[in-house]
Design brief:
Elements: H1 6-10, H2 15-21, E1 32-36, H3 45-56, E2 62-66, E3 74-75, H4 79-84, E4 92-97, H5 99-115, H6 128-133, E5 150-152, E6 154-157, E7 160-167, H7 182-206, H8 210-223, H9 226-237, H10 242-258, H11 263-267, H12 269-284, E8 296-300, H13 305-309, E9 316-321, H14 329-337, E10 341-343, E11 357-361, E12 366-369, H15 373-396, E13 408-409, E14 412-413
Parallel strand pairs: 7-8, 8-9, 9-10
Antiparallel strand pairs: 1-4, 2-3, 2-4, 5-12, 6-10, 7-11, 11-12, 13-14
Length: about 425
Amino acid sequence: MIEGRGEELFRAQDTRAVLQALGEEVPADWPSAQVPLANAHGLHARPAKELVQVAKAFEGEIRLRVIGSSEPAVSAKSLSKLLSLGARRGQVLELAAEPAIAADALPALVAAIEAGLGEEVEALPPMAAEVASEAVEPVARLSAPAAGTRLQAVAAAPGIAVGPAHVHAVRDFDYPAQGQGADAERGTLEAALAAVRDDITALVARSNQASVREIFNTHLEMLDDPSLTEDVLKRLQQGESAAAAWVAVIDSAARQQEALHDALLAERAADLRDIGRRVLAQLCGVTLFEEPSEPYILVMDEVGPSDVARLDTQRVAGILTARGGATAHSAIVARALGIPAVVGAGEAVLLLSSGTPLLLDGQKGRVLVSPAEDELAKALAERDARGARLAAAAERRHRACRDPRWPRRGSVCQRR
């Protein structure tokens, strides 16, 4: 229960399933398969999410462990559990599945891992898999930055923010692979699209910045893209549920964007994924984010433009993300709203405990974990001085020119 596996325990149908939910080893009679991991950055959030989606297509338990690690096998349908393994390139993954589904599930999972789980992968050097499988030392795991750690990341929105971390974990969406019929699933999808369309339209209406309105108008165009809708409807005709079809189409379109050689165009995939999450949340009846009642610094894997636009600027002090870039639409929205942001700090920040004090400099792209009193006081003084300068500049912005080198003649300043 402490590890958040209460639902898995509740659904257990027999003694074996109960033992698995309590962290026991996978039964010996479960078929298994081994496959080396070739992804350059290991099993990080994006490929792990792809693996979860493949696993969820099968009605039964599937578990995964890293050969040579002391960590027990975890559910292949849990994104957070997969990330906790810290699997790296070259290590060998062992998959085990219930006998009833193993013949179909194991080949599909192995093929997905060998294909790169949505990423382009290079072949492993010869013998790399054997070396990894023979390792006896425990796998080095990702750990949260310790107190006093300085992180250098990407400056996304200027300003200095101080506050406790509020770590927003990636949500696991639970939905069936098969639907209740094409007509019923189409109605469900159209209702979800309409709800998200109304929500985005409201964001456009209340945005004061033209740049922000333009971003969300683009989201509306993406939402109404006929090619996306057509691809989803084709999958519904094949018996998939609205959620499963929507996830598959959005993920495919986003990967195509990410594969482009132009970095700016590739970052637009974040907009597709942002829209995709909003619609999927509607389909699954899930609330994506609930803000704390006290001031905080939001820590997320990757924040979407609509996530930022919905934040209460009176409560959120700043934004820190594991991934993302300064040219992403979410960064543009953060700058427009005056929310300091640092992005691309690495997945270790997702392991911070909520409540950990953070000092964030969105101008320099720096983060200090649990800062000392003197460092905190210096940063606060710099923040206050910057605020005073901005306020003074705003107050003077409409004044006429008074530079002595530019004597005023009528309403025009002319140089001597």
